[in-house]
Design brief:
Blueprint (H helix, E strand, L loop, with lengths): L9 H6 L1 H12 L2 H21 L4 H33 L9 H21 L5 H10 L1 H15 L3 H20 L6 H10 L1 H9 L15 H28 L4 H11 L1 H20 L6 H33 L8 H30 L3 H65 L1
Helix pairs in contact: 3-8, 3-13, 4-5, 4-7, 4-9, 4-11, 4-13, 5-6, 5-7, 6-9, 7-10, 8-10, 11-16, 12-15, 13-14, 13-15, 14-15, 15-16
């Protein structure tokens, strides 16, 4: 009698190695992932070069300027560029013309100048430099989205590499300048990325006006604003309250989970670009199946990475002068769970947006943020700063699937029913 081979036999386990190697190769050769990774390195270079010579007061002002610049940049993306890319899936004239990018860049520059004044910068030269330079990151991102549409994704990675080199070269010799000029120089370095991405983009004499998709753009803007409040404000407030042991562990864990979050972010961007431009993702069912596969893969990857990190911290008994072993372990579990569920849910938010369900996503975001803040408040009332951080992250990890994946199920079921009726 022949005994069937077990699925967990050594042979079957080793047979999965080529699959894992192929998956890793696809991951590291993904131009969107590479471009976002290089952009993250550039951001780190800007901060590290600044902190190497600035005083505490100067660096505090620069950190606020840098945060404001990045927030304006992100808001410009979700207000104009991302909604247009999503609309492009069903409307091939949903191309943002140059005047959109220029207009948003000018508006962003004015906002940055006003914020710089609030941060204590009153020198006209610094304010002018900040206002003019703010447009370049926005124009670079506008061209980046154009490259995604015309399937020139590697050009975005080359552009980010060029920006990294120029940024390091310029800021390395910009020691001693005023912090406003330093941030402006960092923005001006985006010029080389603009030049690299110019390429041969066809002129578009006709395009769908912004008013045609302004409602989903407004919902995405609200989503971004609410999400920003959830990611920045709680830790900022708790850090200033002081007295907590766990908060250092959570902050260090956030840094450790940075690469995993980068993979999640690049994966959602890839799905967004594929859904908007690939013929294989034109049908709703095809997009849905691709998104579900990606979501499952990211959830498994996240669980494996977090489990490995926890095991290493336990086995090596890692601790630092500013963070105890127990605080790091608790922080790693909390941040890791949020990374897994938010990355898993993030794919579903993109699917819902591309399927025209923007309202569900925005309501889900408000739901997640509202309950997370309740968790932070309840934890603080019960056990101070440490309790606030632990409860807040635990609630957030649970609420991501509840706020996004559960509301998506009726939409997915309807699409599958419609497909079955067509068949």
């Amino acid at each position: 009698m022949t005994v069937p081979t077990s699925r967990t036999s050594p042979r079957s386990i080793f047979s999965t190695i080529p699959i894992l190697v192929a998956a890793f190769r696809r991951l590291v050769t993904n131009p969107i992932l590479l471009s976002q990774a290089i952009a993250s390195v550039t951001g780190a270079v800007i901060s590290f070069l600044g902190v190497s010579w600035m005083s505490h007061g100067e660096y505090a002002t620069f950190a606020l300027l840098n945060l404001a610049s990045n927030t304006i940049f992100g808001f410009a993306r979700v207000v104009v560029l991302q909604p247009a890319l999503i609309q492009y899936r069903v409307d091939k004239l949903a191309l943002t013309p140059p005047r959109y990018a220029i207009g948003v860049g000018l508006g962003g520059g004015m906002i940055l100048v006003l914020l710089a004044i609030l941060f204590g910068i009153h020198d006209p030269g610094q304010l002018i430099a900040l206002g003019i330079s703010m447009g370049l990151p926005i124009v670079q991102d506008w061209l980046r989205h154009r490259c995604l549409i015309v399937d020139k994704r590697w050009r975005t990675a080359v552009a980010e590499t060029a920006r990294l080199g120029l940024t390091f070269g310029v800021l390395a010799v910009a020691t001693g300048v005023e912090v406003g000029y330093y941030q402006a120089f960092a923005n001006f370095c985006c010029l080389i990325a603009v030049i690299v991405q110019l390429g041969h983009h066809a002129r578009t004499p006709r395009w769908t006006p912004f008013r045609s998709y302004r409602r989903p753009a407004a919902l995405q803007s609200i989503d971004y604003a609410v999400g920003t409040l959830n990611s920045i404000i709680p830790m900022f407030m708790l850090g200033h309250l002081g007295g907590g042991v766990a908060i250092g562990g959570f902050r260090l864990a956030q840094t450790m989970m940075g690469p995993l979050n980068l993979v999640f972010s690049a994966s959602t961007t890839t799905l967004l670009a594929d859904g908007a431009t690939r013929a294989s993702h034109t049908a709703d069912v095809a997009l849905l199946r691709a998104g579900k596969r990606l979501a499952r893969a990211l959830a498994l990857l996240g669980a494996a990475v977090v489990a490995l990190a926890v095991v290493l911290v336990v086995v090596l008994h890692l601790e630092f002068s500013g963070v105890s072993h127990s605080a790091l372990l608790v922080g790693l579990v909390g941040v890791g769970l949020v990374a897994i569920t938010s990355g898993w849910s993030g794919i579903h938010t993109i699917l819902l947006r591309m399927l025209g369900e923007n309202r569900r996503v925005t309501i889900g975001r408000a739901f997640v943020v509202g309950f997370t803040w309740i968790g932070f408040a309840a934890g603080y009332a019960e056990a101070g700063v440490d309790g606030s951080v632990i409860v807040g992250f635990a609630v957030s990890a649970v609420m991501y699937p509840v706020g996004f994946i559960l509301p998506a199920r009726p939409v997915y079921a309807r699409i599958m029913r419609e497909q079955q009726q067509l068949e």
